[in-house]
Write a structure and sequence with these properties.
The protein is an alpha+beta fold and 255 residues long. It is built from 5 helices and 9 strands. It has one domain: Creatinase/methionine aminopeptidase superfamily (Creatine Amidinohydrolase, Alpha-Beta Complex), CATH 3.90.230.
């Protein structure tokens, strides 16, 4: 991925002038390190998933693992979703048009089977930082998941492009919807995306461009009952934007 205008390869984003960006370099390093730590913990938890495991068991394992790593303050409690529930997003947004079947999906827990997709997510606090993560995967083979995962970097690039262009929130969401339709994902259960941008501290009007700061970005795409997602921090300054870290699991190239 090309380097950001805010930094050279291997360096932290440069500090912008004026008071608009309320972060020192040490603050950005702390956020970056904690985000890396949270994803490492989630990957280790994912490595413990086994066929027959219930969602509640996986969520509890993730919770304990995050707590053991010093990430035990939960803004959004660690959760695990298996199977078709991965297409619903953290609050079920995105499957509202499926009626009673959708409500049933939210109520009934899923067990992990061979080929089942999973999504592990949480929002944690530590050292004064709030970090959201969403780790998608599957147990065994799943060609639908593989196709979705291969397309996921395009959404990451698109969100960054729209933010750099100064697009307001509703246009960012619309751009993601358009790309999803082009991929053919939005036609099944209308399960894309629940919400593209989430801020850990306060809501943002849809018609306003993202002001300088750190923003948690969380696009989700789904197709045929399989969902993939990521959540990570985007650094926005007065005249530029970049991902805080390009070394996260969903940013790695697919095999």
């Amino acid at each position: 991925m090309p380097s950001s205008p805010l930094r050279s390869p291997g360096t932290a984003p440069a500090r912008t002038r004026g008071p608009a960006l309320p972060y020192e370099e040490s603050d950005l390093d702390r956020y970056r390190d904690l985000q890396q730590l949270a994803y490492r913990v989630a990957e280790r938890a994912a490595g413990q998933l086994r066929s027959g495991m219930w969602e509640s068991e996986a969520a509890e394992w993730l919770r304990q693992s995050l707590r053991a790593a010093g990430l035990g303050g939960f803004v959004r409690r660690p959760a695990a979703r298996f199977g078709r529930r991965t297409a619903a997003g953290p609050t079920g947004v995105g499957l509202a048009r499926t009626g009673g079947r959708f409500l049933s999906l939210l109520r009934e827990p899923e067990r992990l089977r061979d080929g089942t997709p999973y999504l592990l997510d949480a929002v944690v606090t530590a050292q004064g930082c709030t970090i959201g993560i969403a780790l998608a995967g599957h147990l065994g083979g799943n060609p639908v998941w593989d196709a979705l995962r291969a397309d996921l970097p395009a959404y990451r690039d698109l969100v960054l492009h729209e933010v750099r262009c100064g697009s307001p929130l509703f246009r960012i969401r619309r751009a993601v919807d358009v790309l999803a339709a082009r991929h053919g994902y939005a036609a099944v259960d209308r399960a894309l995306p629940g919400g593209v941008v989430v801020h850990p501290a306060r809501p943002l009007p849809d018609g306003q461009r993202l002001p300088p700061g750190l923003w948690s970005i969380a696009p989700r795409v789904a197709f045929r009952g399989v969902g993939v997602a990521f959540e990570e921090l985007l650094l926005v300054t007065e005249d530029a934007a970049c991902w805080l870290d390009d070394e996260l699991p969903h940013a790695r190239p697919t095999a």
